[in-house]
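task queued by scheduler; priority normal; single chain, no ligands, no partner chains; default sampling; output format set to structure tokens
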Amino acid sequence: MTGIIDYDAGNIKSVEKAFRYLGEECVVTRDHALLRRADRVVLPGVGSFGEAMAQLKKYELDKLLTELVVEKRPVLGICLGLQLLFSGSEESGGVEGLGLLPGDILRIPAGDGLKIPHIGWNSLRLSGDGRLFSDLPGMDGCGQPYVYFVHSYYLAARDERIVKASTEYGVRIHASVEQGNLAACQFHPEKSGAVGLGILKNFAGRF
């Protein structure tokens, strides 16, 4: 069973729908006992880093997530959920993130012809050993996954070894990371067609 964490941060229904389409049993909840019984846990999210961390703390889900990662339970962060796994963000100065992975969440720099937030489809450059990206369908003509982004802030990981996919949007964006049974995507797999469904299927089956 996949537990999808409900902490009032949005983008939950589309994630649930994607997993159910794949035939995966899932539950949307903030109940600690239910999440502990889940085989894997997903932290989705859209919105403000500071507000999201406040909601996680309100329901003591920050502590639960840390415990699950220590116990090596598979955890997947999506979009804002990726950013929350790190120590903080330029979006909300002084607000501490979960600190489960090493890296910085920075604002995408303004540039000629670049609109912020970054909304749209981008190809990913893969490292070659990411479990989320194994045997994916629907690659573009260059053999790269093509996925959908909506964000104004991006990850600059401090340890390149955890980076499994990156993209370019005025700056190099670390678009997906994996460390042990902890994985995360800055893009939205649930909105990325066959490629995205393949990524979620890999999370359910390979972690």
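post-processing summary
- The CA atoms of residues 1 and 38 lie 5 Å apart.
- The first strand starts at residue 2 and ends at 5.
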